[in-house]
Amino acid sequence: MTRAIDHHPVRLRRSVLSVPADNQRALAKVRDLAADAVIFDLEDAVSPDRKGEARDALVRHLAGNRPQAETIIRVNAAGSDFGEADLAAALAARPDAILLPKVESPADIQRVLDWLSERDAPEELRLWAMIETPRGVVNGPAIAETGRTFGGRLDCFVVGLNDLRKETGVPALPGRNYLVPWLMQILLAARGSGLDVIDAVFNDFRDPEGFDTECRQGRDMGYDGKMLIHPAQIDAANRYFGLEEAAIEEALSIIEAFSLPENAGKGVINLHGRMVERLHLEQAMKIAAKAEIIEKRKARS
Ligand SMILES: CC(C)(COP(=O)(O)OP(=O)(O)OC[C@H]1O[C@@H](n2cnc3c(N)ncnc32)[C@H](O)[C@@H]1OP(=O)(O)O)[C@@H](O)C(=O)NCCC(=O)NCCSC(=O)C[C@H](O)C(=O)O
Ligand SMILES: [Mg+2]
Fold it and tell me: Hey, what's the signal peptide range on this chain (predicted)?
């Protein structure tokens, strides 16, 4: 039996910029930036003594300055001193998604799903999960599957390598050689349950060459985009995780070929000397859908 795992629509998540919720100057910049998604952070970018202030500032800010980008709020962990107040503020601010940090087990997701359903949270509110601890990596497939099975709210993993390095002792070396196996493990867990997956931040925001190299690596590993910490990283992320003209043209030619009457009902066709199957048609449709979103976004800016 074929299992349908694609439970969410195609979304563009090439550049996912994090903004500390208590940084007014940074908040004021967000609306003019070309990031596909913005994470308003209440967790590690906000010091413990400013959590309440950050929460209030964020709710006020989003009430009057809703970005066009997909809007996500990263809360503190549900079991922490700040978790419940953050969740309540996030619900009030009506983001597209809430990002849960340091998710380690299906129970971490389930607890928040229950909390949201007790409060009649809007059906369209999504959950994202940071995978950034050893237990999170090991339990990745079960976490992804729980989020998919119960209500289907979970639709994206974000990798947190700063925390993972801290927890494991693996240093930050160029090439991320010792981290790549875990990055691929997280990618498999996400894809196995139809989730999007976002590569980790690159801390040296004044090193564009290093950033380019890491974007290329993330893209080649199959990631949908990169979490960012600075506006200077947005354009490169959009470029590396975007679509090349040749890929769009190829996708359109596959869609066109399968729509010809002589190919109706065929599972496999010959397209200019290359075997193309219906699985390629599925891929092509996703590329075409992303290309359409990119075009709309260009027209808007
Ligand atoms: C890293 C920074 C603290 C650097 O800030 P700053 O010194 O202000 O940099 P610049 O002077 O170069 O900034 C130029 C202007 O750009 C604005 N700016 C800077 N960053 C952002 C941003 N993220 N979003 C919007 N605007 C931004 C500055 O305000 C300057 O404008 P102006 O003030 O008008 O002159 C800073 O970039 C920063 O705080 N970045 C985000 C940090 C963050 O969100 N951290 C949490 C995410 S990282 C993570 O999650 C790790 C993960 O959990 C893991 O475990 O790996
Ligand atoms: Mg972290």
Answer: none
Note the pLDDT tens digit of each residue in 121-159: 999 999 999 999 999 999 999 999 987 776 689 999 999
Answer yes or no: pTM beyond 0.90: yes
* Residue 216 counted as an annotated binding residue: no
Q: Are 16 and 226 in contact (CB under 8 A)?
A: yes
- Helix residue spans in 35-105 (DSSP H): 51-64, 83-93
Residue nearest to atom 30 of ligand 1 (CA): 26
Within a domain: residue 186? yes
Mutate to test the pocket of ligand 1, among 23, 33, 137 (most ligand atoms within 8 A of CB): 23
Q: Tell whether 262 and 114 lie within a shared domain.
A: no
Residue 9 located in a structural domain: no
* pLDDT reported for residue 297: 85
pLDDT at 301: 72
User: 192, 218, 240 — which closes off a domain?
Assistant: 240
Q: Is the CB of 95 under 6 A from ligand 1?
A: no
* 126-131 and 97-100 beta bridge pairing: parallel
Residues 110 and 217 in one domain: yes
User: Which residue, among 22, 148, 32, has the nearest Cα to 73 in the 3D structure?
Assistant: 22
Nearest CA to ligand 1 atom 46: 45
Q: Which helix H or strand E contains 100, and what residues bound it? A: strand 97-100
Q: Which residues neighbour 276 within 8 Å (Cβ) at sequence distance 6 or greater?
A: 254, 257, 268, 269, 270
Residues 236 and 250 in one domain: no
The ipTM value here is: 0.99
